[in-house]
Amino acid sequence: xxxxxxxxxLMVVLDALVVATALTAIRTDLGASVTELEWTxxxxxxxxxxxxxxxxxxxxRWGRRRVxxxxxxLFAAASLICAVAPxxxxxxxxxxLQGAGAAFVMPLALALLGAAFPAELRPKALGVFASVxxxxxxxxxxxxxxVVEGISWPWIFWINVPIGAALACFxxxxxxxxxxxxxxxxxxxxxxxxxxxxxxVWGLVQGNSAGWTSVAVLGPLVAGLVVxxxxxxxxxxxxxxxxxxPLFRSRRFAAGNAVIFFHWASALGAVFFMAQFLQDGLGxxxxxxxxxxxxxxxxxxxxxxLAGRLVGRFGERPFIVAGLGLHALAMVxxxxxxxxxxxxxxxxxxxxxxxxxxxxxLPAAQSAVLTSVAPRLLGKAAGAFSAxxxxxxxxxxxxxxxxxxxAGSYASRAAFSAGFTAAALVSAVLAAAGALAGxxxxxxxxxE
Length: 448
Fold this sequence. Notes:
By secondary structure, the protein is an all-alpha fold. It has helices spanning 2-17, 23-30, 34-62, 64-83, 88-103, 106-116, 122-134, 136-150, 155-158, 160-174, 187-210, 215-237, 251-281, 286-292, 294-298, 303-314, 317-337, 344-370, 378-407, 413-438. It is 79% helix and 0% strand. The chain starts with a helix and ends in a 10-residue tail after the last helix. The chain crosses the membrane at residues 41-60, 67-93, 99-118, 125-143, 155-173, 185-205, 211-234, 255-278, 284-307, 319-338, 344-370, 391-412, 418-441. It is a multi-pass membrane protein.
């Protein structure tokens, strides 16, 4: 169970990051604009975020193992479409389908894993799970750089096809089927949650190209928020709610979801620009850029296991506050030293601090959410947690691109460095907001 769910998570998280060092090659090869590059990242997060809660409900209804395997299969098929894409439009469409497949993997992986371990062992299991997922952080940019420089960028997607096929097979033969406590589907809730999430994420992604005050942006944002408000109202009186609102009475559950929103907003936005800064700001090749990010990511393979073992003793709050505080400090450090003539040693230390902070926070945030609910509600809790993470990622990339566009451009190394400085400061603010949310998590609390 732990191996299958962790490797599936690795594959899903990897594809959120593997394109980072391929963005420059995609921009050159397909003639993509900065907006289309943003869509290459956010198209994945858009469908991922919109379908997460639907996926969790489907797993409760039709079987978590079955839905998990279907998600892995769809992810592999969508990777094939990305690999053979003749233009940026087809690539973006493939990324949308990839995100849809990922949405049916992540919450079900967490639910299957959470149900397989008792509450006292769950933080340790989540630490291992986070460590394996964390391998994607150093491996994603490095693998992307090596493949782009050694072969070509489509091969970053080809690799998913055989792995996905093997995982689907193992899932169907090695994992026992399980269902949620409530087999009924909350169809109005599914429609409202999906439509509201789509409106919000669409508005965020369009903000930089259409203008944040335009009707094309404000319309979807306002409509999405109104529909999400209707979703909340419906959940209060639905006979079989897809997200029981009493869960949010738990400070651990509510604060943990806020933490993961800001955590992934800051982290995904940062890696989106750090890989490009090494190439467009400092002139590195794709492989050198991937190697340059290795110190940032290697911490995510070790730190989560240590944090997972200690969370049960000291609680989640210290790891979240300290972790996101370290990441915020590192982003300010990078903003202060960024420039087209700096050497790599100048940025190596803040990269390690950033990776350490991100890695400390993730298993603690997962633990806060998944240990605050009864086992029968793990599927719904995992769906909410994963949805907040992906919404945060889309929000973070959009806000950092806005900061970059206001201060810099791709016109020269100096212009890119100026934009990167602004983006790094925005990332630091998002991390500080996550640390503030984490400070609200109590040390102990009775489960719902």
